[in-house]
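Protein modeling request. Please complete all fields; requests missing the sequence field cannot be processed.
Requester role: graduate student
Desired output: 3D structure, token encoding
Chains: 1
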Amino acid sequence: MYLKKYLMTIAAALCMLPLSAINPQNSKMKELNVKKVSVANIPVESVPALLDEEKVAFQPVNTVNWAAFPYAPSVEFRIAHTEDAILLHFKVREASVRAVAGHDNGPVWEDACVEFFSVPAGDGVYYNMECNCAGTLLIGAGAGRGNRQHAPQEVLDKVQRWASLGREAFDERVGECAWEVALVIPYSAFFLHDITSLDGKTLRANFYKCGDKLQTPHFLSWNPIGLEKPNFHCPEFFRHPAFRVVVEQKVTQPALTTITVFLKLPIRRPSRGE
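Delivered output (274 residues):
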């Protein structure tokens, strides 16, 4: 009897631990070279084809950090930058989709949602850019989880969005579904900073997939997270320099910006008021 209770207690404790604590190989840092492409005023619907042409590879968002949320849909992203914008393309295949948030800066994390968190400067302010499967967007900024400042609508309107499922809101659709979103994020979207170029810049970042109110909630990250509970908003884990400058050997080659994301970047808590 006592042995059974002991084993049940241990099992419950393991479910609360991050998988990186149980599985040390999950704690490896990933690094990503972000290619600069020479294109101006690209329409967002052309981003996937452009990134194909530029041979920009997809990166998997497949780290399951918490045993209590084991579901792992197929998620991948790729990223590039231009003179004035970040180009971001996500592809997802999952068991259900939802796009209930009908306006920008709403609770898109409750829907089928992909996310890009980054620190563009050295002042500790980080941005959360979150997009549901219908292209509805949330952008927040601040030094911590509390008192986030949402981007004004005029800033959000400058972010081009393309969604393979269309731009209209809809209730949850149960059944396997593949979907994509592409974003052209002008540097003005970092609305608390004056970012005019990413050439030679260093950033800290991570990429996520969540769906807090889907039939199977999940919280995936590109790089692993060493927290006990899902939570993206923990800037104390954005400690180390994460982007490095990659100096090209040939002047004819496009400039690269390097993203290095450290493993203990936080993932979002299911219940959160943005």
